[in-house]
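Hey team,

Filing this mostly as a record. A colleague (T.K.) asked me to run one chain through the structure pipeline before their review meeting, and I want the input and output archived in the tracker in case anyone asks later how it was produced. No errors, nothing strange. Just documentation.

Input sequence:
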Amino acid sequence: MNIEILEFVEGAKKATGLTVIIDVFRAFSVACYASDAGAAKIIAVGDIKMAYELKKKLRNVVLVGEREEKRIEGFDFGNSPTEMIKANLYSKTVILTTTAGTNGLVNASNAKILLTGSFVNATATAKYIQSLNPESVSLVAMGYRAAISAEEDLLCAEYISAKLNDKESDFENRISNLRNSSGRRFFKPENLDFSPPTDFFLCTMTDRFHFVLRAEKRFDGNFDLIRVDI
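Output structure:
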């Protein structure tokens, strides 16, 4: 199994084979928490206009997402796992759009199989990949706003890669130490309303969930995130 680690939208475009689009802070952690909160369907879209168009066409829709890290005007929830665990999403269709994560999915046009990636289901993701035994795996770290290398996304890629290679590595301290680097923003007072400290801890809770979210392209060009229990 050949494993390659890539970054940003450019990396998503280059990715081939089985591809994992990684966005730890916070899109694909949020998607897992939304699924756990009972969402009947999760649709990932690349832009805000499309999210509003889908809301007009579908029933029982909630809009979830961010731009500049903040909840989009008119949306029901921001890109926050703290909001997801408080929400009752039973039977709801969640439409998710973010700066980095969902754009990675939209641009991964050469991927044969497409998954989302985060710490909260990293081991399940590795197990699922091993069950398929693909020739090549692309791990795409989307980065901060899809433009700046994000330590958490690269570390998650490394974590999944280690699991795929059955390497025993101690990631616990490195993940915890993200609080002092890329996770510092969650502890700034000015960010509390849209990016609270609890988001950091919920996003770094490794292997909380034993399912993967497989992205399947829809007829409209967006992606259904299909839960597959492991």
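Quick notes for T.K.: The longest helix spans residues 151-164. Strands lie at 2-7, 17-22, 41-44, 61-67, 70-71, 93-97, 111-117, 136-141, 211-217, 223-229.
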